[in-house]
Each structure stands twice: as structure tokens, then as C-alpha cells.
Amino acid sequence: MKRYVYINENESSHELYCDNRISNRKYTVLNFLPKNLWEQFSRFMNQYFLLIACLQLWSLITPVNPASTWGPLIFIFAVSASKEAWDDYNRYLSDKKANEKLVWVVRQGIRKHIQAQDIHVGNIVWLRENDEVPCDLVLIGTSDPQGLCYVETSALDGETDLKTRGIPATCMGIDFELLHKIKGVIECPNPDKDIRRFDANLRLFPPFIDNDVCPLTIKNTILQSCYLRNTEWACGVAVHTGNETKLGMSRGIPEPKLTAMDAMIDKLTGAIFVFQIVVVMVLGIAGNVWKDTEARKQWYVLYPLEGPWYELLVIPLRFELLCSIMIPISIKVSLDLVKSLYAKFIDWDSEMIDYETGIPSHATNTAISEDLGQVEYIMTDKTGTLTENRMIFRRCCINGVFYGNESGDALKLLNAVAGSSPDVIQFVTVMAICNTVIPIKSKTGAILYKAQSQDEDALVNAAAQLHMVYANKNANILEIRFNGSIIKYELLEILEFTSDRKRMSVVVKDCQNGKILLLSKGADEAILPYAYDGQQTRTFIEVVEQYAQLGLRTLCLAWRELKEDEYQEWSLMFKEASSTLVDREWRIAEVCQRLEHEFEVLGVTAIEDCLQDGVPETIETLRKAGINFWMLTGDKQNTAIQIALSCNFISPEPKGQLLLIDGKTEDEVCRSLERVLLTMRITSSEPKDVAFVVDGWALEIALKHYRKAFTELAILSRTAICCRVTPSQKAQLVELLKSCDYRTLAIGDGGNDVRMIQQADIGVGISGREGLQAARAADYSIGKFRFLKRLILVHGRYSYNRTAFLSQYSFYKSLVICFIQIFFSFISGVSGTSLFNSVSLMAYNVFYTSVPVLVSVLDKDLSEGTVMQHPQILFYCQAGRLLNPSTFAGWFGRSLFHAIIVFVITIHAYAYEKSEMEELSMVALSGCIWLQAFVVALETNSFTVLQHLAIWGNLVAFYVINWIISAIPASGMYTIMFRLCRQPSYWITMFLIVAAGMGPVLALKYLRYTYRPSKINTLQQAERMGGPILTLGNIEPQPRSIEKEVSPLSITQPKSRSPVYEPLLSDSPNSSRRSLGPGTPFDFFQLQSRLSSNYSRNCKDN
Amino acid sequence: MSETNSDRQRRGDRESAFYLFTQQRLPACKPVLTPPWVITIYFLVGFIFVPVGLFTLRASHSVVEIEERYDIECVPSQFRNDKVSYIQDDSVPKNCSLLFKVDKYMKAPIYIYYQLENYYQNHRRYVRSRSDQQLLHGRNFHGTSYCQPLESSNNRPIVPCGLIAWSLFNDTFTFIRGKALLKVNRTNIAWKSDRDHKFGKNVYPFNFQNGTWIGGGKLNPRIPLSNQEDLIVWMRISALPSFRKLYGRIEEDLDVGDYVVVQLMNDYNTYSFGGKKKLVLSTSNWLGGKNDFLGLAYVFVGSSSLTVAIVFMLLHLRSQR
Questions:
Q1: If 0-12 CB within 10 Å is exposed, 13-18 middle and 19+ buried, where does residue A171 land?
Q2: A905 at B interface, C-beta within 8 A
Q3: Which of A206, A250, A604, A1037 gives a 20 to 30 Å CA spacing to A1071?
């Protein structure tokens, strides 16, 4: 479990650990072909095509030249394989670049320039400013006299601020020259991917100082792919190398996501496959019967009387091959192509560029755009997603005195500081010091703060405005400029923030008077219970609640003076805890707990996090589109509810209702869950907008013990607010909704959202202030929350519509040609003759019918503006109205009808003396091509130049190609096309086919469009005729024709949503009913729900 | 928006079409299925199709066609019950005569077709049993596995090989009007392209019809394949089980009331599978032979589209009221 790294003794590590060669490659030159083929053939469709292609090699049964299947198959596989190969080659190149980069490494006591891939565990690596770190290092020396250096970790976690890293205490003061010869051992855990933990120990061998064990943390390491900044040089011992670094371990290939649409297409493919088998069996039996009864009499066929044993199989297999085109081989390529174009459209969209940062939207996953149009649930993070994550210090309460209101908070405070109120000074000092912020002096002399947390940034900046300027951090000495004088503090310990402890503290020594102080800040429940006995914390609790109801983020500040010996004693324990290898985090938390008590609570700060632009509108529009929103946040309940109110998540109006699930024990949670569920069941029939609120603790219990009830609740509820939830709970909730077969979209911006983003069907990351971690893990990254509207309503919807058409059309055109083949088999003695020649068949699928349909990626059924105005229209995508078995049945019927038209007209128009095989087959084929052109034209909603070009150009191309083939004497259809084109009856036949094939289709479409229009049709008419239909209200009073539309509409909107919600939540803190505890503001609702449950019980009794 | 505009300007004119494409904002025309449009389309189709249909129908009717089935009549009455043994018995004379009465004036050229029914030239086994390479290059070409099951006999290759050539139609016809022999032009009945590019000029029949299975007609081994026009016509297989193939052309006009006597050799076996044999004399025009289907279908489609147009118009007027 552990590895022992011997510094500067690289020979011993050679066998044990890998070298620093990075390899992200999936393949090698040798295994590429087999591995890639294996991967490709693990898909059912590919296996099917391979089977067909192999069967075709048997010339006894193949109806056409095997090339007609092998050609496209090899083409498709070659395309996929070369894409993979290209990606892999690029990975190889970037690996090579990284591997061959020259670095300074100590070898036999001398610094040498070697390639990065030759670094071994135990080597000492030297870095200069702005160098990239080649492998995971434990720092042992820096240019800084205090042993500090700064690194940028954005490649690792996306956080752009500089982080401080320091050398371990034992290495302090080792001479520059001696570092080459240093010897020692580092006891560290085996490589893992946790980039926030490194629990190790270092022991230097004599003659280097003592041989004490020195604990190492992540603070003493610099990890692969980070950059050294603001530090002249640094050196460290390689502990993890190559693919075993933290970065290498966390690199994983995420599982490919499958869209609902892909699943539907697979299902339909399966259905077609079954249909094909049935056809094959029927025709196979018919063929064998015909052969035995008729064909034996036909002397010219010369059937042998005794056939081989497999004779019965031959005819069915022939039909299997003949019908194999029912499943179009082109659909995979077409879909891949259009999907990558959808993704490109997202990347290109100039309306989704965040102009503040210049970051365009990006689709990382190019395969799931259709799913965007089918989203049913959106799980959103709060901070940074709905809000700006730009914290501004707004208010505070110091010792019961409120500072700040709507305007000018800082001013009032300033006056108080000027009055030298010691409380206030102490408060501001804590604001300035109790943090992990690094002040950096810019060239102009202004001080910039590099903070990991936006809250700390806000506090330090606020303190600076209050003339308490955190000016400099020099190793452990903090310099504060206060009213012109400089106060110095020595930083003794940092008790870091963890999500469990919910507070952080620093221990500082006032250099003026030598007092040791513990300064703490944290969540109210992590500070207030630890106040010293005499202190009244009630006011603080009320203040916190009041602030929270204003949607502000609160932090409690506290301090305590430590006695020298108390500190010394604790310091030892802390040191010991920090050097444990097992459960270090827990041990540290425990030790910290021993110090963090008996606080004197100084006050409460309130920080405002502004809502992002357009968030309420976006949420309102998307809710109108029938998408349910869940807010998952780590924040406090009241803050969450306030934010929810202010961004239309829930709205204050008598019709709205918030139901709370709380409780600390199983029973309590169970009771409240049942209560909420009952209310929910009753109100689900009423036009009420009910949301439930649950906190992390209750959620934990609910998910563990009452999963079923909670699932039911999740299905009933359109809105939910989950507060105080952990990242893994977020992921669990997504999982829960996914298990109910909902399409979920998770949107977040921070590292804590990554799990939920990866778990959801669609993950959207906001490339925000918390770094790019979420955006990297996500399928789509956008700059602002409001782009989500456009992403879903425009890109998602169009993608869905286009794929729906494209996939069904692909089946349709294959079925047309296949049905003709089947009909032909009935007039060719059920022997499995192919009417079409190999070239035509191949070109039909790959070229003639694929090109026009690809242009359907430009088709827009409704303009973007109309969709934005009537988001309800998304319902058609969500419910899968455009691609489902019944629409597919429509296309199936159409293909059957068109096949009959083409076949019947062809064999009658080209009967007797004209019935030459090649001619007849070309007449039938051109009939199909003509019909295809008109079908695509009829199904296209908007014609751009490209569409015209593709549809009609394709028709022309068909003739040109066939003329060229007809001009080659060696080809089977030599002169055929010229002959046909000279015959008037050919053209007469074509127009007949088009008129007879399209007439009924157009009539049906017109009737439906005019007399039973779908919502989409109504809007199309309104949009294009310039009609005034702009709101749904306007539609209803219009004539009968639209009356029928009302019922599907009411499905889209089962509950009429009112613009405002009940004001019950926003009532001010002066209510006397309220007592302590987070659940109390909801008394009324609980009362109400109890009432309603009574009501329902009464009903049952009656 | 201002950024968008400046963006667009910066890209210049040449790229602006591409820019519009990337923004999915290419100018598009969005047709709507409005009642006036749809009704107009149906009226238009109706008004075009009905006249064209009538015109086509007239053209079809102007073709004069005489068709006579002869496979039953040509079997002597004593063999009527066992036609197969009649056709397979070489000792029985196969000659037979038919009488054609010309009811309408037939203008030269008059095409002579033989028509076979219930004959599956499109059977898979049959279709594939040929070697185009051999037909063009002769015996030098060895890959005759396509010709199965008739690629060789007596261990020597057959030229032309395969079922199609082997089953060559071999009834012969001579035409007599009054007392005089009608001149029948039997050249140029095959496609020129076939003669020039598909059948070799130096390829002579070899080992043909020498095997154990006796098929259809024999070929003169001294005439190259490119001049064996009956074979070339026969090898243009038909896609339908009923088909006509050109036998020759009468290059004299036939008057009303003319009697044409056809002396024929009824050699070809259609009796074993119940096929029919017919002899057809037909004139031709721009439409080809006699075929009422297109005309009728046009009239039908045209009139139904007029009906649809009227129905739609009524529906539209009613809903407007």
C-alpha cells in the first residue's frame, strides 16, 4: 500500500516504478487494427453488417456483387478507424512532446539536462520560473528563503488563482549546493487520483540535520502539469511518475452517453430486423415451395433433382441478403455526420458567446445534441450557476449592531471604525486575516488578492476598503496596514476549511504584544454552538436568519485568545495528526475541534451574490417549456429559498406552496415525507405550483430508508430545492431521476458539481469563476446560465427535429427499395433475383439518397424567435412526438405505398417488348429517386440555397452519373440510360410516378395541416402568414379549426402557472411565531399539509 | 448584438455566406401549405394530366397490333393430351401454319415479335448463368464459373456458355401474303451496342448444344457471335415473366383485308411448364408498342386530382364561412 521513495538513489526504483513516460494512447501500431475492429464490432449494427457482408461472399446466395455491401462497410469502418487513428496520433504527438521536453535532473550529484521521460522516482528535478512540472514532486527547496513557491494548477483543477506550496520543515535552510546530494526516504501512499490529499512522511538521512519524521501534505507537493510561477527556482523529489501521477490517475475515459433518440432508433432497428426475419422466412418458404412445384418443371432453369443438404437454406439466405438493405448502412454515417455538425453549430453560435470573457459555448460531447431537446429535469447548482459568484460584502452585524442596508454599507462601518470601537476593529481584523488569500503587489503598487474562495476575496476587499489593508504576506508574517500604521502578525497555523467542519480558523501571534489569537469564521451552525457559555447567541441566530431571507450568504466571525501553553500543547497534537497516514483528515478535524471552542462571537457578515443576467427569464421560459427544475445547493435553506424566489424558481403567490421535509431521525423524516407526499397527491390535480424543500440530512435518510416514497415524490413534484447537499448526494439525486426514466440535465460550475454533471444524461458546465473543472467534465460548456435557454430551445430542439426526420427518412428510403425487391421476387419465381444492379444499389444508399437528406441539418420548422416565444412547443420533442413507433409506422406505410406505386407503374408501363431487365430496373430506380426528391422537398420546412442545390442537384447528378456509367462499354448498363432518356414514355412514366406517389401524401399532409394542425403547424402558419398569434391566449378564441389544439396544449401545461407565488415565505423576521431551528418558517405549510392529510383521510372514511 | 454586427463586418463579404451558415441564418424560403396553393397544384396536375393521358391513349390506339397464340393449335390433336412428349419427340414433324387477318392498315416497318408467357427469364439461376467476358472474348477467357451449371460439356468449354444461351428460342416463322413470300428483315434486330461491344466479332460458337441436355436452338458455328442476332436478342433477358422479343421486321405495308399465312416450326418447349407462345405483328410510334396503361393511368390520376382539388376547395370555402 505504501511506496518508499529513496531520494537520489534512482537505481533501486527502476524496477519498482515506471519511468516518466506519459502515454495517453489507446492503441499501438501493432494492436490498432485488431483492437479498433474489436471495438467497432462490439456494436450490434456493425455485427449485422459484417454478417451480411460475409454471407455475400457465398456466390450461390448473393443477389448482387459483394462489393455493394463490402464497399460501404469498409468505407464506414475506415472512416471510424481513421478518426480514431488520427485522435490517437495526436495524443501520441502531444505525449511525445511532453516526454521529450528537456528538464534539469540531478544525476550522480550533477545537474543534467535530460528528457522528461527519463525521470525516475527518487530523482531530484529542478524547475525554473514558468516551467511546467513534469511529474509529481515533493518540494525540497525553492529560491524563496522561507521555502515557499507559487504554482498555477489550472491544468489540474481549472482554478486560476496561484497556490502557495512550501518545502517541509526539515528541508528548511539546506544549502543550494547540498540539495544535489541530499539523501532520505519519503514514505508515501500508492498513486491515487485525489489531487487534494497527499499523506506522506519524509525522513532525511544523516548528515542532514536530524532524522525526525516530517509530515508531508499536498502543500508540500507540486503536481504534474502545474506551472511554477513567481518563483525563481524550485526543486523537488519525483514521487509519482508517468501515468502514475495524480493527473495520470484521474485521467479516465468517460463512458459514452447514449441519447434517448439513439435508443429509440436502436429499438426501431430491432423492430425492422424482426420484420426482416419474418419477410425472409415467408419468402424463403414460398421460394422453396415454388421451386419444388414449379421450377423443377422449368427445364431452362435446369434445377438438379437432388440438391445438396443445405439446399433448403439457400433461398431464405438469398432473401436475407436481398432484404439486408432494410437496415440502412448509411444511417450510422449520416447520423455521425449531422451530430458533429449540430455540435459545430453550438460552437459557432455567436449568440452564445460570453462577451465579458469572450468564451464561446462549446460542445465537448458531439453525440448527444438531440437529448438537449428532450430534457425533462434540470438540476442546477446555485452559486456560480444561477448567481454570478461575484461576492460583494453587503451587511454585517457586530455585537448586535446592524450595519448596512440597501445603500452605503461601507460608509457607516467606516465611521464606526474611525470611532475606534474595539469590537469593530477586532471584527475587521478577522475579516482581513482569517483567510488563505495571497496579496500580490502589482507594478503600479495596487494590491491584488489571489483567493481560492470568492467569500474570502469579498471579505478581504471589504476590509481593505475599511482601511484595514492586508498588505503583504512574507512567509509567516502577515502585514496589515491600518490607518497608516503597520501591524504584523505571525501566522502559526491554518486550520483549513473542509465541507464537514464548515469553518476555518487561523492561529496568529500578534507581533506587537505576543498574544496568540485564534480567529475563526464559518457557517452559523459551526460557530455559534461553540460560543463561550455566557454569550448570548440568540441575536446572531436571528441575524443570520434575517440575512438569509434576503438571499445573502452569511458567515459568523469569532475569536479567542489562546494561552501560550495551551497552544504549545495543542500544536504538538496537531503536528502529530497532520503526519498520520491513516484517516488524516478525520484526525485533523478532531484535533481542530479541541481548539475551536469557547469562541467569542464577534458578528455576522452578509455577502451578496448577485443573480446572473437573465436567470429569472431563462428559468421561466424553460419551465414554460415543461422542464422541471431542481435546485441542488450546498447553501443554507433560507438563502436557497430566497434565491429560488428571486429567480422565478418558485414564485410567491397564494397558489404556490412550499413543503418541507425535515427531521433528524428516521421517524421524523418518514412522517414529514408522508405528509408532503399526501399533500402533493392532492394538489397534483389542482393548479397549484408545489415545491418541496429538503436538506442534506433528511435527504440522506430519505434516500437510504424511504427511497420509494421519495421517488414518488420526485415524480410528483415539478420543483424541488435541496439544500446543504454534498456532491455525492447531488449525483444520487440525478441517478434517482434517471432511474425513473427522465432525461436529466445537470448544470453547475464548480468542482462539487462534477459528479452530478457526469452522472446526468447531459452535463452542462458553466465556465465561471470557480475554474473550468465543471466545464471540462461536462458535455457542453457555456459562459452564462441564460445560454441554457438557447441551448435547449434552439439547438436541442432543432437537433431533435432534424435527427427525427433524418433517421426515419433513412429507413424509409431503404424500405422503398427493399419492398420493390420483394415485389419483384414474386414475378421472378420467388428465386431471389435482384431487380437492381450492384452499382445502383450501392449508389442509392450511399449517394443518391444520403446527400439531400444531409442538408436537412439546415431545416428549421419554426424560427428561433417563435420557439423562444412559445417554449411549450418543446413538448413535442420531450414527449418524443416526432420519432416514435407511430410516426415510424407512418413512414413505413409511406415506403410501402411508394414501392407499390413505383413497381406497379414500372411493370405496366414497361411491359412486353420493353421489359428488358436493365431498362426496367433503371426505370424503377429513377422512379424512386424522383419520389425521394419530392418527399424530401415536401418534408423540408425551410429551403435555403443549399437545400435546393442538394435536392434538385442530386436529381441532376443521378442522371449525370448514370449517363457516365452508360457510356462505359464494359459496364452492364452500357447505353441504357441514353436509350431511356430518348424515350418519351420514360418521362411520361416518371411524371406519373411522381404524381401518383406524391398526390395522396400531399393531400394527407395538407388535410392534417389545415384541419387538424399540431401546435407546430399553427405556429408555422402564424409565423409565415404574419398572423397575430403571439400568445396562447390568442389562439383559443379563434375559429373551430384550432379548437382541437387546446387539448394537446393542456397536456403541455398540466398546471396553469401563475406569475406570482404565495408571500408566506417572504414574511419578515418579526414574526413571533418563529422560534429556533431551520424548519420553523414552514410551520404554516406543515399545518396546511396536516390539514389536507386530515381532509383526505376524511374522504376515505366517507 | 453590436459585437455580432462588428463581427460580421470584420469577416467581410466573401465569408459572410459561411458566417450565416454557421449561425444557421441562411436566407430561407418557407413555403406554407395554404389552401390556394394546394388547390392550384391539384388543379394544375389535373388539367395537365387528363389531356396528356388522352393524347397518350390515342397514340396507343393508333398502333395496330395482331396477336395470335399458337402453342396449342400447333399441336396435332392426337398429342393434345401429352404435349410434352410431342415436343420432345424429334420424329414428329413440327411445322404448323397460322392465318393472320389484317383489320387495319399497317404501315411498314411492321415488327414481328414472339411472345412467351409464364417464362421466367428473370429466375435467379437463369439470370446469372452467363459469362459476358466469354461472349466478348471467346474461349480465351477462362473464368466461366458464372455459367454454372452449363460451363462445359465433355470436358470442353461451351461457347456461349450458360443457361440463357443454351435455352435459345428456336421457333422459326415464314410469312406469306397471297402467293408471295413476305420479305422479313432479320438483321438489325439486336441493339447495335450489343453487337459492337458485348458480343465478340471473333468469337464463334463452340461445343454448343453437344451435351447430354438438349436445350433450345442451335447456332451456326461459322457465324461469329456478334452476328448471331437471335442469340443477342434472347440474351437481353426480360424482367417480367411475359415478354416479347423481336424476331424481324416486315418492310412492306399491310392493307386492310390482307391475309398473312405464317409457316412456323414449333420447336420450342413451353409445354412442360405450361408457358404460352404467341406471335405478334405490330406497328410502332413515338410511344412504342400498344400500351393503354400510361394513358389510362394519366387520365385516372388527372381526374382524381381534379376531384381532390374540388373537394379541397369546397372544404376550404366551408371552413371559411
A1: buried
A2: yes
A3: A604
For A350, the closest of B4, B120, B316 (CB atoms) is B4
**The one catalytic residue among A381, A609, A635, A861:** A381
Q: What single letter denotes the amino acid at residue A222? A: I
CB of A126 within 8 A of CB of A235?
yes
Size of interface A-B (CB pairs under 8 A): 220
- Read off the pLDDT of residues A896-928 as tens digits, 9 standing for 90 and up: 999 999 999 999 999 988 999 999 999 999 999
CA A671, A675, A681, A684 torsion-angle sign? negative
pLDDT digits (tens, 9 = 90+) for A954-974: 999 999 999 999 999 888 889
Tell me which DSSP letter residue A760 carries: S
Q: Please indicate if any CB of chain B lies within 8 Å of the CB of A357.
A: no
Is A724 in a helix, a strand, or coil?
A: coil
Helices B292-320 and B35-61 pack at an angle, to 10 degrees, of: 160
DSSP of A494-524: EE---TTT-EEEEEEEETTT--EEEEEEE-H
Local structure of B174: helix, strand or coil: strand
What cell numbers appear for B63 in the block?
Answer: 398502333
Would you put residue A727 in left (φ > 0), alpha (ψ -120 to 50) or beta? alpha
Answer yes or no: A381 catalytic: yes
- Give yes or no for a contact between A796 and A379, defined as CB atoms under 8 angstroms apart: no
**A248 contact partners, CB below 8 Å, separation of at least 6:** A22, A191, A224, A240, A242
Say which range, A679-693, A905-919, B1-15, has the weakest mean pLDDT: B1-15
Main-chain phi, psi angles of A166, to 5 degrees: -130, 160
* CB–CB contact A303 B125 (8 Å): yes
Between residues A1039 and B269, the one the model is more confident about? B269
d(CA A20, CA A38): 30
Find the angle CA(B275)-CA(B279)-CA(B280) to the nearest 5 degrees. Answer: 125
pLDDT digits (tens, 9 = 90+) for A455-497: 888 888 888 877 788 888 777 788 888 877 888 888 888 888 7
Cα Rg of chain B, angstroms: 30
**Contact between residue A651 and residue A689 where contact means Cβ atoms under 8 Å apart:** yes
Task: Quote the pLDDT of residue A135.
Answer: 87
Instruction: Pick the residue of A354, A866, A915 with the most B CBs within 10 A to test the interface with B by mutation.
Output: A915
- The listed range with the strongest mean pLDDT (A426-430, A628-632, A831-835, A995-999) is A995-999
Banded pLDDT at B143 (limits 50, 70, 90): low
Sheet of A162-166: strand order equals: A162-166, A148-152, A227-229
Range A198-222 average pLDDT: 78
Please give the average per-residue pLDDT across A648-670, as a whole number.
Answer: 76
Residue A1077 neighbours by CB under 8 Å, 6+ apart: none
What residues of chain B lie within 8 A of the CB of A983, using their CB?
288
Burial class of residue A272 in the structure, from the number of CB atoms within 10 Å of its CB (0-12 exposed, 13-18 middle, 19+ buried)? buried
DSSP 8-state assignment for residue A913: G
CA distance A1092 to A682: 8
Give the three cell numbers for residue A346. 453550438
Residue from A170, A163, A156, A231 nearest A200 by CA: A170
Residue written as grid cell 466545464: A775
How confident is the model over B236-275, as pLDDT tens digits?
Answer: 999 999 999 999 999 999 999 889 999 999 889 888 888 8
Largest Cα–Cα separation, chain A: 120
Helical residues (DSSP H) of A778-909, grouped into ranges: 787-790, 797-826, 838-843, 850-854, 864-869, 875-878, 885-909
What's the count of helices (H) and strands (E) in chain A, helices before strands?
41, 33
Which residues, 6 or more positions from A327, have their beta carbon under 8 angstroms from its beta carbon? A45, A48, A269, A272, A273, A276, A814
